[in-house]
Amino acid sequence: MERRTERRRLALAVWAVLVSQVLLYPGVADLVHELGGTGDVQSGMWFLVAEFAAFVTFAGVWGAASDALGRRRSLIVTGALGGALGYLVLAAAPALGVSFTAVLGIRALGGTMTIGAFSLSMTALADLSSENGKNMGAAGIAIGLGAALGSVVGGRLADADPLYPLYGAATLLVVAAVIVATVPDRTPDDVRVRLGVALGRLRERPELGIPYAFGFIDRMTAGFFSLVGVFYFRSFGLDAFGAGLALFAFFFPFAVLQYPLGILSDRVGRFVPVVVGSIGFGLTIIVVGVAPTLPLAIVSMILVGVFGALVSPSTMALVTDIADPDERGAALGGFNVFGSLGFLTGFVVGGFTTSTADFLTAFLVVGLSEVAIALVAARSVWRLSSGGFGKGIVGSVRD
Fold it and tell me: How far apart are CA 250 and CA 270, in angstroms?
């Protein structure tokens, strides 16, 4: 099988996992109410936090386990099918009279499985070749298109029935498992180390802290929009489908620009995409929060998507630039741990800030965080990128 075909299939698997996840977001208020919660921002927050707490706990474990076993494919299939089962159990919860506390537990167990499918699919992409920007660009466009489609279709499904997104999510995870089962496992032959050794390698490369920090803040923003963004746009009088369309305004440019901008970062280095992109990302987030009208807020969301597409693939490529082939599973697993922590923080910070203050304060906190990480880490990114315009981090680290 040609590497290009493999790249497309793995990207399709990443896409399917992301669609399954985002299907739930536009109608999260109605879904949580159906599952026994109150349907407000805080109950929605706990519903999303339960899944991402599992992501944080197990992303690195899945990655390091794949390094230790020397295989990715079977673990991806297992994770996807386990996640599908979790969604089906959630869909049955109202009929079974399951409490909302138990629902949160089921949500966490499903997240434990789903993160394996997501994280290792990206790692399998990184195994394909040394063209890290292209590989991560493929992952990025899959993530963006998955989020874009999921936000629209999820809103429509939720308006029809709050439980329909759960059935859709389960179906997509089964599809992801079938797709990955057709792709050869290209885990490097010498990747058979003990679990503790694989995780220990992360401590041996402190340079990973730079992309991890950016990944944390960037995913915090995504988590913020997944929760607070939905409630914010519904405050304009939109239904779940309308809120999904508002999220689509961000996710669509975020998706279609990731692949070309990932290739661009291979050519010009990581500094401009990561640092300049993060500053623009943060400022446009604030513009969304201060927008006086819905049309202006939607236009601002498009700009947020453009800057997000500039940052995302370059940040992921920094991780694969630093890590040796036999460390990629643990390194990208670690990146997803910090990314999931960011999502988790976005839910919590956004939920509590909105509940205790207002939407504008929440948008300011998140937007300024993006600007702050860019300013604080600019010198480090410049150094790692060989002056900002070299071939990336590889030369400076290896030298």
Answer: 22
